[in-house]
Each structure stands twice: as C-alpha cells, then as structure tokens.
Amino acid sequence: MVAPEPARKGGTGPIEGLGPASGTSRWQRYKLPYLYILPAFIVLAVVTFYPIAYQIYLSFTNFAIRNLRTGNADWVGLRNYERIIRNQVPLPNFDFWHILTFNIVWTISNVFVHVVIGVAVAVLLNRKRIYGRKVWRAIFVIPWAMPPLVVATVWKNMFDQQFGAINQLLGKLGLPNDIAWLTSTKAPIPGIDLLPLSFFAVLIANVWLGWPFMMVIATGALQSIPGDLYEAARVDGASRWQQFWDITAPLLRPAMVPAIMYGTILTFNQFNIIYFITNGGPYGRTEILVTQAFKLVNPNGLYGLAAAFSIMVFFILLIITLAQNRVARGLEGWSDA
C-alpha cells in the first residue's frame, strides 16, 4: 500500500523554495533591464529634464546679465508673469495680447494655406495622366528642405522696395512697383488693422517654405487609398468632386490631423521667417511670441523674464494642442456617424 503524499505547506500554492517567491527580489529580477535604460535616462536628464527644470526656476527669479558673474538672483515669484500680462516689459511697442492675437492669426492662416495647397498638389500629382510626377514631387520638396534662414534672406531681398524682384516684376506688368512691402504700416484690407502689408509678405515666404511638407504627408496617404474605391464611385456616377469629399478627404484625415498639429507647433514658433525678414516690424506689427522672448535675452539680457515668457508659450501651445485633439476626435466621431 502506497503511503499518502504529504501535504504542501500553504495548500495548493507553489512548493516552498521554488518559483518567483524564492529569495529573488524585484531589483535582482529587473536589474539588467534597468541598467540597459540607464544611459538613455542620464542623457535625457542632462539634455532635456535639467534645462526644463532650470528654466522653470529662472522664470521665478530676476536673473539677468548682471547676475552672470555672481550667479545670484532674487526670488520674485510670479512677478515676471505679471509683468508680461500687464505689458510691463522693456521692449518697444510691446503689447502681449496684441502679439498673442497676431501669433494665433499668423498660425491659423499659414497652416490653412499649407494644407490647401499641399493637398491640392498631392491630389493633382497622384493622377496617372500627369507626366513626370516623381520629378515634380522632387522639385516641390526643395523649399521644405532648404534652411529657413536662407529662405528668409532670399525673400527679404525679393521684397526690397527699390531693388526687389517682386516690385520689378510688378513694374514689367504695368502695375505699381514702389510698394513698401516690409515697412508700410497701412493695412491692405480695410478694417483689419491687425494685418499690415508686411504680414502678407512673410505669409507668402512661409507658405512657400511650408506647403511641401503637407504635400509629402498627403502623397503618402493617397498612395494607401485603394483604387477600387474610385472605380466603384465612377461606376455609381460620382463626380470627381464627390469622390474627393466622400473618399479622399475621409481617408486623408488620419494622416493629415497629426501633420496639422505638428505644423501648428512649427508655425507658432516660426522664428526665422519673422525675425530675418521684418524683425517684427514695422513698429512691432509682425512680432510673435518667440521673437519677443529672443529680444528679452538679446540684447536686453533679461533671462528670468525670458524664461517666464517661454513657459507661457509652452502652456499656450499645450492648450492649442489639446483643443486640436478635441476637435479631431469630434470630427472623427461625426464622420463615423
């Protein structure tokens, strides 16, 4: 007769001394993965986390160029943020709310034109009847690949009132050729004083620079749309306009929404075009937030105030991004309904 097997301690649980419950601690089990990610974490801490934390600290101090030698600065709390909102900033023609409004209008108008031109060109070049489509795509990408500083310098020279190519071309066409594109304070659109003529000059330059990015994104999305959908739509008698709104636009949305968000952030902080073409002029009419933050540092040397300005820009962009996400979800739900 076989003797019964002795019961295990703890009932049906694991045999004592075996399995994860044995003396292996959590650190010993995950020590190697932690060691693998440690170098990347150190790099992120030095390159990203520490500068952000230090900038937040600076925004609550009066740190300026006079403190560079000693490194001592007084804690001022929210005083820097209060000075910005109340327009108590030592910059000429500074008006925070006017600059913020202009910055938002600048961003919306640029991104809208980028998307319209980019999608239109992508759809046009997606047709098989267009000869040399790959060549045209490569040519159109060149502006996007150029450094913004080079683009700004070229367009600034083209908009020169006396020797610029734009006015010379207008003169060849028999049109007025002495237009002060970059220095005129008059608004070309009656009743919209917020947008001087220089706004449209930098808008043209930035559109030329930015729309190829949207074309590249839209082209990639168009390549993934099955041709059978268009064939079925043509059989049903749908026009090209109906095919675009019922097939192309809904299937482009998943790719274009992230591109629009990315383009919004880039355009909101587009320093080079504004600074090197108009330098915020005339009389601060084309200033945006990042150009003002830069001028607080150079030449004024107000690092604490500039840090507070940058933190405010970050939260403004965060709010815009969250609003875009909400709108994108709403459009997605509306299209699926």
Structural commentary:
There is one protein chain. The protein has 337 residues and is mainly α. The protein has a single domain, classed as MetI-like fold. Helix content is 64%, strand content 0%. It has 12 helices and no strands. Helix 7 packs across helix 9. The chain is globular and about 75 Å long. About 3% of the residues have low confidence.
Quaternary class: single chain
Q: Indicate the percent of residues in helices.
A: 55-70%
Indicate how many domains the architecture comprises: 1
Q: Structural class given helices, strands, pairing? A: mainly alpha
Order of helices and strands: HHHHHHHHHHHH
Examine the secondary-structure arrangement and name the CATH architecture. Orthogonal Bundle
Query: How would you sum up the global shape?
Result: globular
> What is the number of strand segments?
0
CATH class: Mainly Alpha
CATH topology label: MetI-like fold
Mean pLDDT: 87
| Percent of residues in beta strands | under 5%
Low-confidence runs of at least 5 consecutive residues: 14-23
Distance between the termini: 73 Å
Question: The biggest beta sheet, please?
Answer: none
DSSP helix count?
12
Name given to the CATH homologous superfamily: MetI-like
**Rg measurement, Å:** 29 Å
